[in-house]
Design goal:
Layout lengths: L5 E4 L9 H15 L8 H7 L5 H11 L9 H21 L9 H10 L3 E5 L4 H11 L7 E3 L12 H10 L6 E5 L2 H9 L3 E5 L14 E3 L12 E3 L10 H9 L3
Parallel strand pairs: 1-2, 1-4, 2-3, 4-5, 5-6
Antiparallel strand pairs: 6-7
Helix pairs in contact: 1-4, 3-4, 4-6
Bound molecules: xylulose-1,5-bisphosphate and magnesium ion (MG).
């Protein structure tokens, strides 16, 4: 593989474990504000994650999981709920409830030090992605932040990754993507990107056979060793750029 030029990161589940104690709580607060008796448990939310995108997830719930009468004007209700949910999610972030996963800041810092280009490719709404980056990293480090409805089709469609590649005028062969879920992996692979997966409790039993590397997280030297679930990172217990480049090269 040619020399690595850019790293493209998913947000939810990859930069931080945002779903269970972030988005899920925010959805439930928005439902309560609207006087609805809907409540998404940790387990049910795992099933609802089958549908990417917050608005799409509420539709999916109404179509396939909701027991009881359907609302008369679902489009309007979903739009309002999603707006309220975004505010709740931003409040959770501002309160410091959500942290970066191990190794994320370290690897991004190393990439910056080496002059690699950085981008975000997420299904989440732009204000949510920005709020997380503002709290934990710095949005200005990312040349393109592709989010939510900026593309027609959400993951597992490749659109959001294709958008990033086009905006940055990059060949996918010179980049690596970072994902946490099967649908994210499929989106990145369909855009021609080699992909590292860091699993989380919601995704760890999914099919990651197309990934270059599968880890429990990126690891922190001396503090938080990572576990390699598939692929090779030599005899160190965290992922750095040298090992990433090796893993990409050996996956020809
Ligand atoms: C993220 C999502 C999003 C968030 C909610 O998927 O599926 O729907 O759960 O985001 P990925 P919004 O990590 O694969 O990009 O409510 O802002 O849409
Ligand atoms: Mg994700």
């Amino acid at each position: 593989m040619p020399t690595l030029q850019a790293l493209i990161f998913d947000v939810d589940g990859t930069l931080a474990e945002t779903e269970r104690e972030g988005h899920r709580i925010a959805f439930n607060r928005a439902f309560a504000d609207a006087g609805l008796d809907w409540y998404w448990s940790i387990e049910q939310y795992g099933k609802l994650l089958a549908r990417s995108g917050g608005k799409e997830r509420i539709y999916f719930y109404l179509q396939q999981h909701h027991q009881g009468p359907q609302p008369p004007n679902p489009d309007r209700l979903i739009g309002d709920l999603h707006e309220a949910k975004t505010e709740h999610y931003k409040q959770l972030l501002a309160a410091g409830k959500i942290h970066l996963r191990p190794g994320v800041k370290r690897l991004i810092q190393e990439a910056r030090d080496r002059g690699l280009r950085l981008a975000i490719a997420t299904t989440s709404a732009l204000p949510n992605a920005l709020a997380l980056l503002e709290k934990t990293l710095n949005p200005e480090w990312f040349e393109v932040i592709a989010a939510g409805d900026m593309v027609a089709a959400k993951k597992p469609a490749p659109d959001v990754y294709q958008y990033v590649l086009e905006k940055m005028d990059l060949d996918p062969g010179n980049c690596a993507a970072f994902e946490d879920s099967h649908h994210g992996l499929i989106a990145a692979c369909q855009a021609g990107l080699k992909t590292v997966v860091t699993v989380n409790p919601y995704t760890r039993n999914q099919d990651f056979s197309q990934a270059v590397l599968v880890l429990n997280h990126l690891g922190e030297p001396d503090r938080q060793p990572c576990t390699v679930l598939a692929g090779e990172i030599g005899d160190i217990d965290y992922l750095d750029l040298a090992q990433l480049q090796r893993a990409l090269n050996s996956d020809q």
